[in-house]
Amino acid sequence: MADKKRMQEAIKKAKLGQELSARELFIDIVQENPDNKLAWLWLIGLLDDREDLILACEEVLRIDPTETRVLIRLEELRRTKKTEKERKENAALIRVDELLSVGNIELALNLLRKSLKENPKEEGWELLAKYSPSLDEQVYACAKIKALHPANKEKDLEFQRIRYFQANPFELAVSYEERGEIDKAIALYEQLTRKAKGRREWDRIFREINRLKALQEEEIVHISRFLTVARLTAGPPLLFFIILIMQIGYDYRYFSLLMAVELVLVVLGSFLVGVASAGAEHRLWQKLGNAAGRGSKQLRLVVGAIGTVIMILPFILLGFDAYARWLTIFDYFGYDFQ
Amino acid sequence: MFPINDTEPSRYSVFPVMTFFIILINTVILIIFPPNQMGVLFRFISIVPSAVFARVGGGFLTGLISMFLHGGFGHLFGNMFALWVFGKRVEDACGSWRFLLFYLLVGYGSDLIYTFVNAKSHTPVIGASGAVFGVMGAYLILYPRGRIRTLIFWFSFIPSWPKIRAFWIILYFLAIQLIPAMDILLNDSQSEYSVAYWGHLGGFFASLTILLFLRPEAFARYWSDTQV
């Protein structure tokens, strides 16, 4: 009976426009009797906060699942909530993008980290993996991306690559330098100074930082890895070609198939030596098992040695050819051994 | 005019190991095969243009041997001193092994041009001067403004040793090759000269290939038009 009276009073207040006091009364009523459908329905009309409204709708539907109008309202509320959440998230990422594009990386990363705490989106992790100066954070971000795509080989390779660089941070710095990202290389070396194991390593890092800063100050251009390997490959075949011209007496008719094969071998060997000495990232290294696609010291040594053997072999073969005909010079000059 | 020292420091390495090694080998070979005793052998083991064209003899091996044979201590000293002065920094820009390849390439480049110009000559050619000219050419390409301490005898007897820009010295040495080289080309008069001028020029032309042998950083510096 008291409930009915309180309901009438609350409805009266609501009709008179005293929404706050009406709302409080309805809230008291539903707290005492959560199954009061009418009170919940009135609350739907009086509440402002979307979360409270969703709760009220859910309660009405719990009591009476056939309330189609409430169901439609609830769906609409949920949809709006989702859209607004996405908009907020996207706004955060757009802001991060803007900050990154103007070079305010530190602020962008702070915003990104905050946004990722509330909303761990893939795009966010990708940005963090790309821009974070901390290798540990990059590995963490890549792990998150990998977890989202467990079967994706590309993501897995990227994760392995970053893990490799976490274990070999100096190579990452060299890799940055090779790609012309001198700022990133310097930043990484500066991080590494904090972890330097002893004076010698610290000196080495310091020298590298100085060298890179000098490169920046002198505005040294970046030379692509392709050009470097091509350039280093070209020298020995050119030498072999000159030697061949002398060997065949400047007459192309004496250029044999074997010589052509030898020339190709010199090119191949020289290419391997070029790749090994350039030390750059190359598919070859990935095929040989380096996760980061980089030539580790051992791999480079092996490939360089193989390349040298392949490169020198044609010189030796041509040397045998030259040696075999050496005695003809005595006939040519009419030298008599007797 | 005699270049005696490159006054500027190396950037990448402490000591020019390969330059030193080449000088050592040349010196040892001169001691083992003194030209006054073994000179008669030279036409059989060193490069002879007519034999190259006739495809007889040791072919390219004779070119290699020629590069390390000298006609006497003065010949050796002149070549090796120039190699030491100009080779140090060229090796520094290349690294030792690539410098060796470059040295051989300019040596063979020198032989290639000399043999071609003097195709009918039966005279053997010896000496590292073609390769040394190649190294000088590379120095000119890489360090045109390098300063070389140079010994000059004014009026043939007053000595002075100023620092001279490399391009003046190298262009001077290049210029003094040109007139005899043109004479040889136009009048077929190599027999009148005891110096392989076209070999020197050949080495110099071949030095253009230095860019293929530079360290990546040295190449980037060269490309950026700054001190290699």
| Model regions low in confidence, pLDDT < 50 over at least 5 residues of chain A | none
CATH homologous superfamily (4th level) name of chain B: Rhomboid-like
CATH secondary-structure class of chain B:
Mainly Alpha
CATH topology of chain B: Rhomboid-like fold
What's the tally of helices of chain A? 17
Element string of chain A (H = helix, E = strand)? HHHHHHHHHHHHHHHHH
Q: Label the overall shape of chain A.
A: elongated
Question: Structural class, from secondary structure content of chain B?
Answer: alpha+beta
Shape of chain B: globular
Number of strands of chain A: 0
- Subunit organisation of the chains: heterodimer
* Fraction of residues in β-strands of chain B: 5-15%
The most extensive contact between chains is:
A-B, 41 and 41 residues
Helix content of chain A: over 70%
Q: Could you tell me how far the N terminus lies from the C terminus of chain B, measured between alpha carbons in angstroms?
A: 26 Å
User: Sheet bearing the most strands of chain B, described?
Assistant: 4 strands, antiparallel
Lay out the secondary structure:
The complex is a heterodimer of chains A (338) and B (228).
Chain A: H1 2-15, H2 19-32, H3 37-46, H4 50-63, H5 68-101, H6 105-118, H7 122-131, H8 135-148, H9 153-167, H10 169-178, H11 182-195, H12 198-217, H13 225-247, H14 257-278, H15 283-287, H16 297-324, H17 328-332
Helix pairs in contact in A: 1-2, 2-3, 3-4, 4-5, 5-6, 6-7, 7-8, 8-9, 9-10, 10-11, 11-12, 13-14, 13-16, 14-16
Chain B: E1 2-6, H1 17-32, H2 35-38, H3 42-45, H4 49-53, H5 60-68, H6 73-94, H7 96-117, H8 129-142, E2 147-154, E3 158-160, E4 163-165, H9 166-187, H10 197-206, H11 216-223
Antiparallel strand pairs in B: 1-2, 2-3, 2-4
Helix pairs in contact in B: 1-6, 1-7, 5-7, 6-7, 6-8, 7-8, 7-10, 8-10, 9-10
